[in-house]
Amino acid sequence: MSDTERHQPRDRARRHFLGVVLSASARVAAISAAAGTIVSLPAQAMGHKWWKRQDGPTRSPTPTNQNCFLRGTGIMTPTGEARIEDLSIGDLVETVRGKAMAVKWIGRQCYKKSGPSWPDNVMPIRIARQALDQRTPHQDLYLSPNHALFIDGVLIRVKDLVNGISIAPALPAGHERIEYFHIVLDTHEVIFAEGAPAETFLVRASNHENFTNFAEYERLYPADTRAAMTPFAPIIGYEGGREHLKALLRLGVSRFIQLRDPVQDASERIAARAGHRVS
């Protein structure tokens, strides 16, 4: 691997959008004025390179931008792991809160390759065994790019953690199609997928329609089709500036606001671990 390729994940993790900090400054000033406190932003929040705007336009949500588990993913239940495709409505899954919750619904999507390669927003991302720590995940975990892991108290989309070594786009051998599943609980939660803390489906207005079996959800829960869940934790990522800003403010509003970049922190830590493991 060349030096350029080796540094690409770190550089990508630092590509942020400078415009957001202007909004952050205005929001912080308003909070400060209302609370009568003095608020300061650290130097990196005033133009450091990780605030650069993301290259290219932000893509509009499409069915292939959904966040899902690949077929075969092991989900922890009170009686042990079960493959996600074997779970049914009413089955219990363990959550990071320490309690089991019943599956409300399972969404499904299936894709067949129509060209020489899979689109980036369809190709799963592999989180290699022990990529996060010495035990997590306990075997390779495959998630769709927009699926978030619960790391350091925030939800980080796995596509923002790609380092080309322990976290990288990949598909298990022998897969001629990509079949995704996702779990809906009564609330947005974090469950254990191959031992790793991963989010359940965050229901927002009509986004269940991105699944091929969405009619089942509407039939079972007609009153929920326009409901919106509250995120389990702040959702941090390099797209959706308003959502990212809200998450940062939730993390840091105090007498002295210290804005940090949790994505960069986690990405660099995971990449360093990957480098140590392969050296």
Structural class: alpha+beta
**Mean pLDDT across every amino acid position:** 75
Characterize the biggest β-sheet: 3 strands, antiparallel
Report the uncertain regions: 2-64, 253-257
Straight-line distance between termini: 13 Å
CA-atom Rg in angstroms: 19 Å
What would the principal axes of the Cα set say about the shape?
A: globular
Q: Element order, helices and strands?
A: HHEEEEEEEEEEEEEEHEHH
Share of β-strand residues: 15-25%
Strand order of the largest sheet: 1-12-6
**Number of helical stretches of at least 4 residues:** 5
Number of distinct beta strands? 15
Query: Approximately how much helix is present in the residues?
Result: 10-25%
Structural descriptors:
3-stranded antiparallel β-sheet, disordered N terminus, alpha+beta, 15 strands, 279 residues, 24% helix, single chain
Gist of the model:
The protein is an alpha+beta fold.
